[in-house]
Here is the input.
Amino acid sequence: MPIRQEWLDQVKEDVLEPDLPICDPHHHFWDRRDGRYMLDDLLDDARSGHNICSTVFVECLSMYSKDASISISPVGETEFVQGLAAQSASGDYGEIRAAAGIVSFADLTLGKEVADVLAAHQQASHNRFRGIRHACGWDASQQIRNSHTKPPPHLYLNKKFREGFSCLSSFDLVFDAWLYHTQLKELLSLAQAFPGQTIILDHVGGPLGIGPYAGMRDSVFVAWKKGIQQLASCENVVIKLGGIGMAINGFDWHKRPKPPTSKQLATVNEPYFATCIEAFGIDRCMFESNFPVDKVSASYAVLWNSFKRITAGCSSPEKAKLYHDNAVRVYSLPGS
Here is the structure.
């Protein structure tokens, strides 16, 4: 979905708590025929007033190596992002350390053979490689777009997938999970089977709001909340607060004449984030931008303002964890 900067520019706000340190633990880079989001684009957003100190890049099928085997080709994405991270770290682009951590893709259904791919990512990243995301978002409805990795149903229950998943610990890697709310029980099963493996659930578990889920906001919330509360019983699971500005979530911000204000975003998103914070606790939650994907709904400055409105009642130590410290710790970023 294209970014409409002129539409976003209709809403400008003063930045709330501009000195609060932030590590943005979820964004992408790409340069494609249908759009571009590179280092300069991220820095333009990150310099909009909030105190962004560092970021984590998460895989998005970008710049795979065309001359490598299918299994090794995702290492091209790590090489690509490593170059952008090195640019950022040079200091010539300011103090923000973009892509201080890199979460790459490896096909875990390779089983034990995935170890060779993990080693290649590690070598390509100059010590920035922190984890793997193998998305499993799948729904039977043709109106729901399945994850970019084209997963089969029940991927996280697959025996071969779990064999590959078991390799992550020997490389000291975390696992980012991306799925829909209807699949939370599958992630629960995975987390229970591997209690020593850190799992980070992206985008509050993907509550759907289109296709067969359109007009069912209340019943979806009830089902989603139950899944979140069950998953929170697994101490090895951490959750990202954000990523529900996508079209699949069904809030339709992008269809409005003007983008939402931070107050409007906070009002709609607060029940989801509050539920997660209550279930997981302050120490296992982190706010994320999911940019540029969520940029179809709001600007970077407005999005982070909305988060800060939701946490207005939190103490300074709690805010430090939610916005910076938890992400830096979980992803083992410099300074942790």
Q: What stands out?
A: The mean pLDDT is 97. The chain has ten helices and ten strands.
